[in-house]
Amino acid sequence: xxxxxxxxxxxxxxxxxxxxxxxxxxxxxxxxxxxxxxxxxxxxxxxxxxxxxxxxxxxxxxxxxxxxxxxxxxxxxxxxxxxxxxxxxxxxxxxxxxxxxxxxxxxxxxxxxxxxxxxxxxxxxxxxxxxxxxxxxxxxxxxxxxxxxxxxxxxxxxxxxxxxxxxxxxxxxxxxxxxxxxxxxxxxxxxxxxxxxxxxxxxxxxxxxxxxxxxxxxxxxxxxxxxxxxxxxxxxxxxxxxxxxxxxxxxxxxxxxxxxxxxxxxxxxxxxxxxxxxxxxxxxxxxxxxxxxxxxxxxxxxxxxxxxxxxxxxxxxxxxxxxxxxxxxxxxxxxxxxxxxxxxxxxxxxxxxxxxxxxxxxxxxxxxxxxxxxxxxxxxxxxxxxxxxxxxxxxxxxxxxxxxxxxxxxxxxxxxxxxxxxxxxxxxxxxxxxxx
Length: 436
Fold this sequence. Notes:
There is one protein chain. This protein is mostly helical. The chain has a single domain (29-409), classed as Na+/H+ antiporter like fold, CATH 1.20.1530.20. The protein is 72% helix and 0% strand. The longest helix is centred in the last third of the chain and has 35 residues, at 373-407. 50% of the residues are buried. Residues 267-276 and 409-435 have low confidence and may be disordered. Keywords: Antiport, Ion transport, Membrane, Transmembrane, Transmembrane helix, Transport. It is a multi-pass membrane protein. It is found in: Cell membrane. InterPro entries: Cation/H_exchanger_TM.
């Protein structure tokens, strides 16, 4: 390890340890973990201490970001619960089937209109990269107990699914940029590898691993500690096989996580392990959270810091519109006719936070030494950085206000107030989602 690399590692370790010591106190404040680590990254990057630089440290930076996203994809897919769709399935389905394509189209059109330096497929690529959402950026707003369960589950399910849905589109558009490594495969080869090969590898690895774990667990062959290590081995195997065969490690990791949970029952019920809840996914969730935090540090250092030095009004305007109109208008259109009240529509639309998926895909684009990637990297970095700031700062306050609004009688439509006033929770004549 070089001198600058050692100092960078020491700085990142110090920030991580310092945040760990006050994490509980900060959890209830506007200071989110992504905000802390992104700010620290800017300070140790080229515009600060100069300890991390994309040109000098591209290899380790990309490996860290890719591993973090693969672990998050596996963990998100493995922890998707059926109850997240049972009472309010319409919310994530509409956000994904209608809202996501509209968001991608709006983001691409806005980039084409507002950023004339982009040509070809570049505006569309920016729209795709900035479409997926990340619950970790606005964690308090997504997971606050006071928020209606359908909204919590809907936003969480959207975050767990949309990142995988955009990956094939990203791969095809990246192949359309002349000079990139993906362009040598061509769109047809990319589609074959991403849509067929990668899911097949994930299906085999996750399904076989889950079945073997269930049998080993039933027969008492596997220890408690090694049971939690197995998912780490499976996501590594699925991702490595996909990368080695020219596919997408991210798609393979997501499919492997989804199939693994179904085959092994990991995290699905408390009865999976005698005497308590199944914590098979605990290790991978903790490691994914740690690497995601470190990825925000790297993002702040090598992408956001340099981007701030090239900030322009058009880039800033795109970032603001991307977080507001580009997200909120498609959300409102997707939920037309759902009978959700304006406050819920606004809350759902606002908390489409951009985070780890966008920053990792942005790093992959920025690492390509082809014309146009600098402007794309700048736009993506500023948008994600602004999301980390605005969504992180507003999540606690808005979650509290929205939760209090929902708890009051005014949260119910006037026509329903009398019908539910004398009935305990769970016995309302209409599903919960129709009351807000």
